[in-house]
Amino acid sequence: MSRRFLIGLTGGIGSGKTEALRRFSALGASTISLDEIAHEQARPGGAAFLKIVRAFGRRILDDAGRIDRKKVGEKIFSNSNFRKRLERLTHPLILKEMLRKMRLSSGIVVVDVPLLFEGNHEKHFDATLAVLAPFSERLRRVLKRDRLSNLEIKKRMSSQILDEQRMRRADVVIHNDGSLKAFRQNVAQYYQAFCLINQEQR
After folding, report:
1. To which CATH superfamily is domain 4-200 assigned?
2. Mean pLDDT of the chain
């Protein structure tokens, strides 16, 4: 297997990190999303499904017997103890699957890790990249994208570290406060830089 260059990607809700991950993928990087891993594991038959149901009860299931993410979200973002309990149940499983997928990847590998710094996961990566955007713009994007109230969004934002902390800890910062075209161009420039670094390390 060829040399891997592992990049941990993070950013607050509405920052644009999902768009960055899509762009890295389109440019040729291998990409991994921890949100997608979490969703797979929370489906019926998934590694975390029964653990979550046992912890929070069948009230969190929808009519089809699947975990209702909105119900779980309301629970964990209104009570930090519930959130910590869910994290204790699911994070080890998600981390194990992330590491497995990373071992099978090669070249430039970008991993979307929402709680990269909160969980002190930097040690798994060669470089870390944070996507930042103004609070008002993030709020506008999430209001447009999700069926959540202003209060619900702000609760979710307050559960994450501040952008100032991400800026201090990240190796690379991309500001997503302009046009989509400019943002994609910035991502492409960093992708080229990561490719050069990876080539030099061979």
Report:
1. P-loop containing nucleotide triphosphate hydrolases (3.40.50.300)
2. 92
The whole-number pLDDT of residue 144 equals: 86
Please state whether the predicted TM-score (pTM) of the whole model is above 0.85. Answer: yes
Q: pLDDT digits over 91-128, tens only? A: 999 999 999 999 999 999 999 999 999 999 999 999 99
SS3 of the chain: CCCEEEEEEEECCCCCHHHHHHHHHHHCCEEEEHHHHHHHHHCCCCCCHHHHHHHHCHHHECCCCCECHHHHHHHHCCCHHHHHHHHHHHHHHHHHHHHHHHHCCCEEEEEECCCCCCCCCHHHCCEEEEEECCHHHHHHHHHHHCCCCHHHHHHHHHCCCCHHHHHHHCCEEEECCCCHHHHHHHHHHHHHHHHHHHHHCC
Return the pLDDT at 202. Answer: 61
